[in-house]
Write a structure and sequence with these properties.
Blueprint: H1 2-19, H2 25-40, H3 49-57, H4 62-72, H5 82-99, H6 107-110, H7 114-130, H8 134-148, H9 155-159, H10 162-173
């Protein structure tokens, strides 16, 4: 099941880019659908482009897959404010530094003990609800549900991935870019 979700999510990534091309809205959805279908079709070697992308990136996080799907559907959420994006990027950079062994603390191991991390996410969920960021709250809830359903072995993998962090960095550096992370 995890592999199929990864393949479908990886087919959505180029489709989301196609949905962002300048074209009338109806044509964007058609372009995105065609690109997603093409990404799932087997190439001459037997594997599809989505499988290659999955092998390269791994399974995209649930928020990234959700943002890609919303972009393909023509409903990208409003972008998060700069301080929120900055906090997300700083958390991710600290996470990756500790996960790569730059400290004595095994931060990745916390993701296998879900209740502790879920409890830490509760204030973030409350802030999203209070700030009326329903779509972002839904993406967070979807990440938690996919982790609870066993789609991800580690909660950190369900919450973010290097591509999502890179896109947040691009959004911080060039606010008018990267439509997959939400419209302005």
């Amino acid at each position: 099941m995890t592999a199929w979700f990864g393949y479908l999510a990886c087919a959505l990534l180029p489709a989301a880019i196609a949905a962002s091309w300048p074209a009338p809205p109806r044509n964007r959805r058609i372009n995105a659908t065609l690109v997603a279908l093409a990404a799932l079709l087997p190439l001459p070697g037997g594997d599809s482009a989505a499988q290659w992308l999955h092998a390269l990136l791994g399974t995209p996080s649930m928020p990234l897959a959700g943002l890609a799907l919303l972009t393909v559907l023509g409903q990208p959420p409003r972008s998060l404010e700069k301080p929120v994006l900055l906090a997300f990027v700083l958390l991710a950079v600290e996470f990756y530094a500790l996960a790569l062994g730059l400290g004595q603390f095994d931060v990745y191991g916390i993701g296998y003990r879900g209740p502790l991390l879920v409890a830490a996410l509760f204030p973030i969920g409350m802030w999203l609800w209070y700030s009326d960021k329903t779509i972002w709250l839904t993406l967070l809830a979807a990440a938690l549900f996919t982790y609870a359903g066993g789609l991800y072995a580690n909660l950190w993998d369900a919450l973010f991935d290097p591509l999502l962090v890179g896109m947040a960095l691009v959004r911080l550096a060039w606010p008018g870019r990267q439509p997959i992370l939400g419209r302005q």
